[in-house]
Amino acid sequence: MKTTHFAIKAYAVALLTLMLGVLLSVWLDDWLWLSRSGSLVVINGIVLTSHQIIDHINRLKLSQMRPPRQFERDWADSDKRHLIDDVAGGVWRYEKYGLYMLIVGTLVWGFGDLLNAF
């Protein structure tokens, strides 16, 4: 759940950054500000994606450092695998959204100043 809250905050910051870039571009009549805000969205996307990768790696390390038990038998192997797949799927879903943020930020960064031509 920590990753979900972090992703929501990252998207809110990215949206506010783009809105500020549009407002500055209109107010100053200089559309390079929108391109600059796109570069900040790219940085935000990098932080979002790398945070989730680091969090996932740390969880994998913790699961492998589990102390061995004397009487251990896995009675619910299929249930456990299903739970692990659900958790891992959620983590990778947010990493995909971080990638989308990187793509949008890069496009705004590269072509945001051309919106003035329309």
Strand tally: 0
Tell me the β content: under 5%
pLDDT under 50 segments (min length 5)?
none
Largest sheet: none
What global shape is seen?
Answer: elongated
Count of the domains: 1
Compute the CA-based radius of gyration.
20 Å
Number of helices: 3
Query: First CA to last CA: what distance?
Result: 42 Å
Bin the helical content.
Answer: over 70%
Task: Kindly name the structural category.
Answer: mainly alpha
| Helix-strand sequence | HHH
Q: What does the average pLDDT come to?
A: 79
Written overview of the protein:
With 118 residues, this protein is mostly helical. The chain has one domain. 81% of the residues lie in helices and 0% in strands. It contains three helices and no strands. Helix 1 packs antiparallel against helix 2 (32-64), helix 1 packs parallel to helix 3 and helix 2 (32-64) runs antiparallel to helix 3 (77-111). It is elongated, with a radius of gyration of 20 Å. The protein starts with a helix and ends in a 7-residue tail after the last helix. The relative contact order is 0.20.
